[in-house]
Amino acid sequence: MRIALDAMGGDNAPEAVVQGGICAARDFGVTVQLVGQPEAIETELAKHKISGLHLPVIAASEVIRMDESPAAAVKNKKDSSMAVGLRLVKQGDSDAFVSAGNTGGVLATALFKLGRIKGVKRPALGTIFPTETEEGHCFMLDVGANTDVRPEYLLQFALMGHCYARQVLEIPSPRVGLLSIGEEELKGSILTQEVTPLLKRSALNFVGNVEGKDIPTGLADVVVTDGFTGNIYLKGVEGIARAIQTILEREIRSRPLALLGALLARGAIKALRTRLDYRNFGGAPLLGVNGVVVIAHGRADSHTIRNAVRVAIQASEHNLVQTIRSGLTEYISMNGSG
Amino acid sequence: MRIALDAMGGDNAPEAVVQGGICAARDFGVTVQLVGQPEAIETELAKHKISGLHLPVIAASEVIRMDESPAAAVKNKKDSSMAVGLRLVKQGDSDAFVSAGNTGGVLATALFKLGRIKGVKRPALGTIFPTETEEGHCFMLDVGANTDVRPEYLLQFALMGHCYARQVLEIPSPRVGLLSIGEEELKGSILTQEVTPLLKRSALNFVGNVEGKDIPTGLADVVVTDGFTGNIYLKGVEGIARAIQTILEREIRSRPLALLGALLARGAIKALRTRLDYRNFGGAPLLGVNGVVVIAHGRADSHTIRNAVRVAIQASEHNLVQTIRSGLTEYISMNGSG
After folding, report:
1. Which of B34, B58, B82, B203 has the CB geometry, 3.0–4.6 Å to B7, for a possible disulfide?
2. pLDDT value of position B226
3. How confident is residue A46, by pLDDT bands cut at 50, 70 and 90?
4. pLDDT of residue A155
């Protein structure tokens, strides 16, 4: 398997990205194609022992910066690491593309280079949240690709989320919930009220509205929302988890006995951190484009990159694109519309 | 000062509500008017020592249930505890109304009984979130009153939030942020992009877009959003804080040394819990109606109710309604529109 990795994308590129790519090549036994400015990549590669690993460097002269306008970037930077990496996927020379770069840039380039799967109205970004139960998790989409959506897009997000959960996460009959502000059907926005009957009529295992508080308790395997709300939830949860850590550390430091206590409890604290650490989930698959694309957090470190490559491998192994394609076709043939 | 308390509202009514009312009357030296079914209230009062406290019982024969349709409740239950309590405020017989009941019911009844402050397009629910900094907090609105909004509503929410933060929270020049999905102005939904120029043109101390992750770091004193997104954020944060506690407890219990450690660190853990405990913030003021109305969490216990009464007292003492009224008038006279 060959994974194209955007060596220039993310706040910590190329250093952390190349290092993560090396870890992935070693741990998963795959070829990691490092796409970007060859000199910068070679400098990083020289810092590591890489004999026996498959780490070809694929030249791309331009870099799409984190703060760059996606539309302009796609138009003007034809030789960006994103454009080159996604071209590899398009041509069948890579099985997937992974980037921690400018999310809008990846989205726009992926749409331009790979196009949408036939019938897909809008691709969506999905991400996994940990739940309280051991090994439990919840897949939410969209978390940022589409800020303004229509009911039929949300129905498709639900379908694509169902395909991902069943095929890649191996949940036999994924429970699909709609993110809203009350359990009752009547509660919610105009959008959620309009999408509810569509979800109820679908063949999906729709479990109704779920609230933000229900996600950690594992009430649904797939949670559907628009990209604005999903992104607010994602960043909110990330922020509060970090704040809790900051406050707890401060309170512990100010108490000598507590400091000793924290030392004794460090195994438990570490287990909690691991459970909450977004880095372990690696990256967010972009569902609905003609190829496997995984977007990692902009602040991704090498560990995150390694795990994002793992997400890409899993999606490729489980034929994500084909799964969504057949899922949609089946649905359209049953219901007469996407 | 007289605070009308909905003795029948909330999952733990009347027991916890009456108890909270008693605590408030004792701790703050105010009159707490217990509104609801007299027998049920008297039964609860009989369980406590209340001599010397001002706790008049105000009869209201009907109860608006937590799952009831707000519109139907307002129409059909003319003698509900909400209707009676809000009538007291309207008639000047109470300084504020506090309820942990059906949020939609309180909203609808407040609109019907008190009406909007002249010029206010939509009232909004605000709530305080803790920040990492000691004593820091962030006031967010709307967190649930308006699921679908227009840019001009958000501008008014910002104005009302500014008034609340300056007058009641005593922050001299509150920094106002717009909840969005990226710091850059171009990021966000159609709604946030439309409201940005309005906020920039206003006389408010507008600090631009803030993300969910910025709220705990204290980047803004007031954060404006629609009621759908705000409620998702609120419940999401609540859920993750609880999940973290659950996971940490489980991890500690499974390790004997960690259990000892947690015992030694219990002061720090307790301080963290206190800092995060939504109960300490008491209730969400409803801004924009002609009277002080505070809505407490449906699962409110007596401690929450006590603190919700405190929020109501503060808002009354600081002339919240008059402040918003003058703030809006001033703004309209300066800008020619609300």
Report:
1. B34
2. 97
3. very high
4. 96
Nearest C-alpha neighbor of B18 from the set B38, B44, B43: B44
Q: Does A267 touch chain B (CB under 8 A)?
A: yes
% residues pLDDT > 90 (chain A) = 70
DSSP code for B222: E
Give the pTM: 0.91
Closest CA to B19 of B217, B307, B239, B323: B307
Chain B contacts of A69, Cβ < 8 Å?
A: 186
Best residue in B264, B270, B277 for a mutation probing chain A (most A CBs within 10 Å): B264
C-beta separation of B107 from B71 below 8 A: no
Q: Taking a C-beta distance cutoff of 8 angstroms, is the pair B179, B187 a contact? A: no
State the Cα angle at B115 between B109 and B120, rounded to 5°.
125
The reply to whether B248 touches chain A by the CB within 8 Å rule is yes
d(CA B227, CA A189): 9
Reported ipTM: the value is 0.89
Strand partners, A209: A178
Interacting residues of A298 by C-beta distance below 8 A, sequence separation 6+ = A10, A11, A66, A100, A101, A102, A103
Half-sphere exposure of A132 (CA within 13 A, CB side): 19
Q: How confident is the model at residue A267 (pLDDT cuts 50, 70, 90)?
A: confident
Residue pointed to by tokens 């401690």: B303
- For residue A187, the distance in angstroms to the closest alpha carbon of chain B comes to 9
**Entry field: residues in chain A:** 338
Closest alpha carbon to A187 in B52, B104, B169, B8: B104
The dihedral through the CA atoms of A229, A71, A9, B179 has a sign that is negative
Q: E-assigned strands of chain A?
A: 2-6, 31-36, 57-59, 96-99, 124-130, 137-141, 175-179, 205-210, 222-224, 283-287, 292-296
DSSP A17-56: HHHHHHHHHHHH--EEEEEE-HHHHHHHHTTS--TT----
Residue A204: name the closest of A234, A224, A227 by CA. Answer: A224
Q: Quote the tokens at residue A185.
A: 């059907």
